Structure formats: structure tokens, C-alpha cells
Amino acid sequence: MEHIITTASTYEEQLADAVELLQASQKITVLTGAGISTESGIPDFRSPGSPWQKQPPVTFHAFLNQAEARRRYWETRRTLLPAVKQARPNAAHRALAELERQGRLLGLITQNFDGLHQDAGNSPERIVELHGTSREATCIICDTRTSIEDVQRRVDAGEAEPRCSLCGGYLKAATILFGQRIPDDVLTRAKELSIRCDLFLVVGSSLKVTPASHLPRLALQAHIPLIIINVEPTRLDQQADVTLHEKAGTVLPRLIALL
Ligand SMILES: [Zn+2]
């Protein structure tokens, strides 16, 4: 496919090209990042002004080795809970659920762990949560999943470092911390979805974080067309067939309505 020189075309032309590509596709793989959830009130921790700029996030290494880091982990989590609990899917999430209802969605890979794609109506079996989920708790040793609400209640009741009732390992949310490996099966599935689709659509990701940023590259190597929807430019804009620097909640519903 001939790649369009994005700088030379207007926004409306890009929009028309996106509709054409989407209409021609039946097996779309979508990669979503923090940008889709900021419109639901979930902070993007990598943006200026985020809570992480005042206090860097607890790394997996620190969580494993330092009681103070585990305490800080649970404290930070408590301060973020109100925003997370209030968050509802926005128009962009709903548009991606509509894409699935239309039978065009092969898979939905997300860097977010907020569960909003499931809330919007996408089937859990089509979703790959690269960075895990904050809606469950997990044991760092035996990986047994438990209720995050129960664990949070134990923390709130004064248990500084809740442990697994089966093996005694530390419990944490089932998200991937900095320095923690993404499980092989999760990454393998994401890579397969990236090369088996007939269109790769990036929504709300600046493509700065690996391995998520590699996935659209895999698609490009497989000669799969690429659409990028992100407020800020990304490193792959020049290689994408279409780039739309716009809020996902504005442009995605518009695109899907035109299919
Ligand atoms: Zn355990």
C-alpha cells in the first residue's frame, strides 16, 4: 500500500482516508493507551502534572524488597481510587465496542488497566491487557487472583502488607509495575493480533512505552495499514497511512458512524 505523506494532507482528507481504510477492513486490531482514558477522568501518569511527577511510581523491585515501598504502593493506590471508581467509558470506548458489534474487530490490545473497554461492551476474550488489570488482586508468588476490594479493605483496616492466604506471598493489584515482566502468553497474543489483522489502529497512545510501541511496527513490517489517533504526534506518524491529532472521544465516534 502506498503510504500517504501526512503533512501534505488536510485533516478532512485524513478523515476520509481513515474511513476508507476502516471500511475495507474486517479484522482490525486496536491498540489503546492512556489517551483514551484521560477523557474518562483517569490521569495519564506520564503527563506533566501527574501524581507520579511528585512521587515516582513504586517499581517491582522495590515492591519485592522494601516494606516502605509496599506501604507507599497501597497509600498511592488509595489516593487514586476515587478517580478510578468514578470513571465510566467515554464515546471513544463506546465506538470501539461498536466496531466489535459490526464484526470488524480482531482484537483490542490496551496499555490501560482500568477495565473501561469491558464496561463499554467489548468482549473480555478479545481484550489483551498488556499492563494487567487494577480490578483484581494477585499474589506475587503463586499468582492466585483474589478480590482487590477485599485486599483494599484489609489495607484500610490497618494491614500494611497484605499477604496471600495460600502461600504467604505479598498481594498487589494485578497490574504490571515498572520493572515487572509482562507474561509471555499475553505478549505473544498481542504480537499475533498485530500481524494477523488487516488494519492496525492506534488510539490514545504516544507509542513511547515498550513493548506496546513495537506492536504497530510489527504491523508495518507485515505491510498492514496503520492509522494513528492521538492528540500529540507520535514517533510512527511518518510511517502511518493516516494520522489524526485529535481527541479519541471526538474523532472515533465520527469515524465509526461513517462505516
Ligand atoms: Zn500466593
Q: What is the total domain count? A: 2
Nearest-angstrom radius of gyration? 19 Å
With strands numbered from the N-terminus, the spatial order across the biggest sheet is: 3-2-1-7-8-9
Could you say which overall geometry the principal axes of the C-alpha atoms support?
Answer: elongated
> pLDDT below 50 for ≥5 consecutive residues: which ranges?
none
Bound small molecules, by name, code or SMILES, are: zinc ion
Report the sheet with the most strands, covering strand number, pairing sense and barrel closure. Answer: 6 strands, parallel
> Strand pairing plus helix content: what structural class?
alpha/beta
SSE topology string: HEHHHHHEHEEEHEHEHEEH
Domain Deacetylase sirtuin-type: 8-259
Active site: 131 (proton acceptor)
Keywords: Metal-binding, NAD, Transferase, Zinc
Binding site for Zn(2+): 139, 142, 164, 167
